[in-house]
């Protein structure tokens, strides 16, 4: 463990204790008796008489209150005893350990595939920087926007339907052979590479604007050497993001694991939380927290190792020397027009139920078709835009403000809390919060806000560290400038634009987080027109009425294109 990690050890312990207490309090927060929960899970037909409940309490040594239960669990955990499952009676360590190995394999392959795809796509851009040409690629921005806006669970269902059910090329469920990993890894990688592409492009553009690139080129350095150094510097910037992605995938790919029936840690944690199997929930959370700390520390170590030569030479990230002009071509305006038509056009249509129009395809009466109960899809998409886009914009602003504040204020020793929170997936938080506060949009919002700011804070912290290593920062300190003045006048302008671009590309990602929670029944309520809930309802009818999946997904893709193409060049 690094020295910075040791300095943040009290924060890590405190956050871990709070997380364990919250998970352990789940049955009491819902007002249910843990013994009654266990009895209902094991013997559905038996009456909950006092004798049966007392027998369960004695056999499992159930605590009388959440504080006592959490304390007993922590003491036993330090001895390697994580207890037994309240539902199955199997040891928690065995259950969580086996599912962790599955998730590590899945997340490792997905993260490696995502990074490889990202550098393959950005490779031509890096080579052009080495040759002295511009590094901006509009095509890559469009590709990253589309990929980042694809609903992960819809992509997983489509891959399973096409390549497993129809073509029979790969197995649809399970995790026994290498073939079982192809479709889930593809679903996660395709959905993740969009965000990584944008961060990579931003990093390459920032590195290409640094003074050392022009100096090397003027001194006759070979283009291949410049390109290699640009790639190394860009990798150093995005490496913490990749490791955060690795830690997050372990618990966050619940939908993919559930779609393909993969016995991973995320699916295990979700099922345990839904069944109020507290020992398994606590064990899964402990593993996720520890994994986040280890992976986050490893990412920071590799970042400093890759950046050591440049930081030692005072080659920090270049300042933004100009504001730039906003270039919005016909592609951006076309996406805006299509999104406006898709949304506004639905406002003037009726979403009344018409059983005679059930699964009716696009026609004059229903231009975008009808759903499984005969409601007009266009009207439903228009109504749901208020919930989906409005929520995504509000969540993005909240996460951007928090991410900038935390990232600029952070030092090397303050990374622990972000590693801990990132290790707990928003889906799992949504399950816990839904159990404590009740399912709904507020629980979904809170779950996303708790972890949504972390990638932005890590990105801001990385860029700020490089900016502080530049010569201007040392000169300002020597001249007597205060830390607040340097941050406001120099560091914030150099950090704000790339982090804002990152936040914009994450806007559809946050909308998809709401979509995933709604898919699991933790977000929008029953029959809500929110696009995520529409997609979750439509997936089971995809073969009979594919248009019910197409148009809400198209709205999310257009939202991603509009937000990502509207930026300063």
Automatic annotation (TrEMBL):
Provide the topology term for how it sits in the membrane.
Multi-pass membrane protein
InterPro entries the UniProt entry points to = BP-dependent_transpt_permease (IPR050366), MetI-like (IPR000515), MetI-like_sf (IPR035906)
List the transmembrane segments: 106-127, 139-165, 185-208, 234-256, 280-302, 330-348, 385-408, 420-438, 444-464, 507-525, 545-566
Q: Where in the cell is it found?
A: Cell membrane
Q: Which GO biological process annotations does it have?
A: transmembrane transport
Instruction: List GO terms (cellular component aspect).
Output: plasma membrane
Where is the ABC transmembrane type-1 domain positioned along the sequence? 96-299, 381-567
Write down the superkingdom of origin.
Bacteria
Keyword entries, A-Z: Cell membrane, Membrane, Transmembrane, Transmembrane helix, Transport
**In which family does this protein belong, per the annotation?**
Belongs to the binding-protein-dependent transport system permease family.
Protein's name in the database: ABC transporter permease subunit
What species was this sequence derived from? Answer: Arachnia propionica
């Amino acid at each position: 463990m690094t020295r910075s990690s040791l300095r943040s050890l009290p924060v890590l312990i405190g956050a871990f204790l709070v997380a364990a207490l919250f998970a352990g309090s789940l049955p009491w927060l819902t007002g249910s008796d843990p013994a009654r929960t266990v009895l209902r899970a094991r013997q559905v037909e038996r009456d909950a008489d006092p004798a049966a409940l007392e027998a369960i309490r004695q056999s499992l040594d159930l605590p009388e209150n959440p504080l006592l239960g959490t304390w007993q669990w922590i003491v036993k955990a330090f001895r390697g005893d994580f207890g037994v499952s309240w539902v199955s009676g199997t040891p928690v360590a065995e259950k969580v350990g086996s599912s962790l190995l599955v998730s590590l394999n899945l997340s490792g392959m997905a993260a490696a595939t995502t990074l490889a795809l990202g550098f393959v796509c950005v490779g031509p851009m890096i080579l052009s920087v080495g040759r002295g040409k511009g590094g901006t690629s509009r095509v890559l921005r469009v590709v990253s926007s589309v990929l980042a806006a694809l609903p992960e669970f819809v992509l997983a269902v489509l891959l399973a339907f096409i390549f497993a059910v129809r073509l029979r090329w790969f197995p649809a469920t399970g995790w026994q052979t290498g073939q079982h990993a192809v479709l889930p890894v593809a679903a996660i990688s395709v959905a993740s590479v969009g965000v990584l592409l944008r961060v990579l492009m931003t990093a390459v553009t920032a590195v290409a604007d640094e003074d050392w690139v022009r100096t090397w080129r003027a001194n006759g350095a070979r283009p291949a050497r410049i390109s290699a150094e640009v790639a190394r510097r860009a990798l150093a910037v995005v490496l913490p993001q990749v490791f955060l992605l690795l830690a997050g995938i372990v618990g966050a790919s619940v939908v993919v694991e559930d779609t393909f029936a993969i016995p991973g840690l995320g699916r295990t944690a979700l099922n345990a939380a839904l069944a109020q199997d507290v020992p398994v929930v606590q064990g899964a959370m402990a593993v996720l927290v520890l994994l986040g700390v280890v992976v986050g520390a490893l990412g920071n170590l590799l970042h400093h190792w890759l950046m050591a030569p440049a930081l030692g030479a005072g080659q920090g990230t270049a300042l933004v020397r100009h504001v730039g002009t906003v270039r919005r071509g016909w592609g951006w305006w076309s996406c805006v027009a299509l999104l406006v038509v898709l949304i506004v056009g639905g406002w003037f249509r009726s979403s009344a139920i018409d059983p005679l129009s059930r699964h009716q395809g696009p026609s004059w009466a229903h231009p975008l078709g009808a759903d499984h109960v005969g409601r007009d899809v266009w009207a439903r998409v228009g109504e749901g835009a208020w919930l989906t886009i409005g929520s995504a914009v509000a969540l993005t602003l909240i996460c951007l403000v928090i991410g900038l504040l935390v990232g600029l204020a952070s030092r090397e020793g303050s990374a622990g809390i972000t590693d801990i929170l990132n290790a707990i997936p928003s889906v799992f938080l949504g399950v816990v919060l839904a159990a404590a506060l009740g399912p709904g949009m507020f629980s979904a919002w809170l779950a996303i806000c708790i972890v949504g700011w972390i990638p932005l804070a890590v990105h801001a912290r990385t860029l700020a560290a490089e900016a502080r290593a530049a010569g201007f920062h040392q000169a300002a300190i020597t001249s007597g400038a205060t830390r607040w003045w340097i941050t406001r006048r120099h560091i914030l302008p150099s950090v704000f634009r790339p982090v804002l671009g990152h936040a914009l590309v994450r806007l559809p990602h946050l909308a998809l987080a709401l979509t995933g929670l709604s898919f699991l029944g933790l977000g929008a309520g029953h029959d809500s027109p929110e696009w995520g809930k529409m997609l979750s309802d439509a997936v089971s009818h995809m073969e009979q009425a594919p248009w019910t999946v197409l148009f809400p997904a198209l709205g999310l893709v257009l939202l991603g294109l509009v937000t990502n193409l509207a930026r300063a060049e």
